[in-house]
Amino acid sequence: MMEWTGQASYMQSHKLPTQLIAPMLAIALVIEAAGVLCLILGWQARAAAFIMFIYLGVVSVLLHNFWAAQGASAGGMQTQFLKNLGIMGGLLMIAANGPGRWSVNEV
Question: Residue 73 contacts by C-beta under 8 Å, 6 or more apart in sequence?
């Protein structure tokens, strides 16, 4: 949200269609903001975690494809990809098991 132009440039450098970048960034903003809020509150956490799992998988493959990178940037991209993989594992656990007893749904 704070670095819209920088993120748009990064997406352009990965050869994503220019006309789709602004809508993709807007969708990403909604998914990330609403998803995090749902996870924090525990409201519809399973659905939010699953949507964020899919979203993060797509982002990881499109924007952190270290296997296609050359030079010094490959290491940083691999780190980001593996970080996202770890987050995806946590999201999948929430999607499978639910948010727990402290969620808004339990009240």
Answer: none
- 105, 43 contact by CB (below 8 A): yes
Q: Give the pLDDT score at 2.
A: 77
Pairwise CA distance, residues 56 & 50, whole Å = 10
- Please name which of 53, 77, 52 lies closest in space to residue 64, comparing C-alpha atoms: 77
Residue 42 CB partners (closer than 8 Å, separation 6+): 99, 100, 102, 103, 104, 105, 106
Q: What is the pTM of this model?
A: 0.87
Distance CA 91, CA 45 (A): 9
